[in-house]
Amino acid sequence: MKAFLILEDGTVFTGKSIGTGEDAVSEIVFNTSMTGYLEILTDPSYAGQAVCMTYPLIGNYGVTPDRESRKIWVRGLIVRELSQTPSNFRCEGTMQELLEQEGITGIEGIDTRALTKILREKGTMNGLITTDEHYDLHRILPELKKYTVGDVVMETTCREAFILEGDGPKVALMDLGAKDNIARSLNRRGCQVTVYPADTSADTILGMHPDGIMLSNGPGDPSTCPAIVQEIRKLYDSDIPIFAICLGHQLMALANGAKTYRLKYGHRGGNHPVKDLKDHRVYISSQNHGYAVDAGSMDPSIAKEAFVNVNDGTNEGLTYINKKIFTVQFHPEASPGPQDLAWLFDRFLDMMRGVR
After folding, report:
1. Phi-psi region of 257 (alpha: psi -120 to 50; beta: other; left: phi over 0)
2. 114 C-beta neighbours (distance < 10 Å), count
3. Under CATH, which number does the domain 2-149 receive?
């Protein structure tokens, strides 16, 4: 079936329908990863977005158990070619079957390089995936411009607290739309991880007397989470070690008076170089975010830059002064190295144990 991707600037791509074939309006973003499409589709940070994979062949190893959450969160998948004959000893089915099972629409056969160039030059924009050959641009474009991702943090967070048992430090993980591998990375190191919904009060978390607090990744604009920011400020005022990733990093910065801003087209992929400003070593990181912390807006007596993006100089991490708190914009649980930045979890454990 013929399908169309219509961007809010009026650009139209024609391809073939994949998935359910239903209409889907979303924010259109691109990811440069060559593998990991299942982790991308099930990453809650993509809630409200359709993702264009720049690598031309997607689905070649089929559906494997490599998920980051309970379901697919993207609203649409955009690819050059979706493999119908996957080959892998762990394969459990095709991507087409998975998209249909989970009610996700998509489009294949378009020039994904051209789409990526448009998004890089003009910035992230909204779009519609449709199979309606009689679409009306005059009606569609105003609706696309109105679309917002909305309050997707509460959409993606867990509904109630749960525990991953361990015999090590007790960690309270605030689920802002967390990837499962964050909790697994802590649990593999022996931590007992209690995962809390995003609207859990700071008093509830502190009342459980955790050894450390983890603020997860998540979707959307950090400025739309003022109530969560207030609770994070209370967590900051405690003396408990805190480690934050991605959205958690941004919300901790907002809780301390800094500002965030929207990037032109975001950072999404597995090849983003970040520099550790302490030892000037560069690491290759996995990233997925459309907003960044304005490091210049942070009071230098509160926090200092710890990492910067080598490509564009944007902030990638902060260390808080006289606090057992450090935060990063990238994803150390998904190091494409594959273990380039996993040592940050060990650093967090050392902080909880009073080593540093």
Report:
1. left
2. 11
3. 3.50.30.20
